[in-house]
Amino acid sequence: MAVLNVAETCVGTRALGPGRRSVVWVRGCPFRCPGCLAPEWIPDVPGRPVAPGALAAELLADPEVTGLTFSGGEPMAQAEGLAEVARRARAERPGLSLICFTGYRLETLRRRPPNEGVASLLAETDVLIDGRYVASRNDDRGLRGSSNQRVHHLTGRLRGADAELNGGPRRVEIRVRDAETLFVGVPSRALAAAYPAPAGAGAGAGVEGGRAALQDTDDHAHPAPAGVDERSPG
Ligand code: SF4
Description:
CATH topology: TIM Barrel
Number of helices: 7
Distance between the termini: 29 Å
Order of helices and strands: EEEHEHEHHEEHEEHEH
Largest sheet: 7 strands, mixed
Helix content: 10-25%
Shape: globular
Strand order of the largest sheet: 3-1-2-4-5-6-7
Bound molecules: iron/sulfur cluster
CATH class: Alpha Beta
Strand content: 15-25%
CATH architecture: Alpha-Beta Barrel
Radius of gyration: 16 Å
């Protein structure tokens, strides 16, 4: 069984898709999109190792969660393990929806999948948001980071939310933890500029597509100026 290399999780958010959702961001991404909010989560270095069953249980700790969102890093790089998370979560809570971000194009995933687990993860996915982040095409709309990214409804489960996914207003939740603040959601360009990931980034992180940004609270109090296109989501 594949053990996942997890960067962060957030249980019970309304900032990353319709309804109340739980999110997992994985570590490691083969892409290097200019403006990625999570450069420190691009290297495939050890994060928190979690078995799929344990991760599914963690994500379902909130009984009101009706969907999961997988982001990163690159979820397709850990497709086998994430597919198992989805299967186990749905065995526990049938009807869960799944949104998955990826830097790959759907056509590539189908014709030349980067690993054997991709087909399994696609089979579990209701909505795939695909493509690499292009800062110049960030239009501050929808759950995709830039307008070149596409929202694919692989099932009909979230078709009613298409307008929200493609062009709805962006939402960000701020979770205050012991010594850190976790930003959950796809930030507007203005918010990303106001709260850039800290330079050097040991404590800071943002993630693909539906991004989080983890920053020391001290860093929040003194956000460094940054160009919008330098810190926007993918
Ligand atoms: S924006 Fe997404 S696909 Fe691009 S480098 Fe960052 S995590 Fe990878």
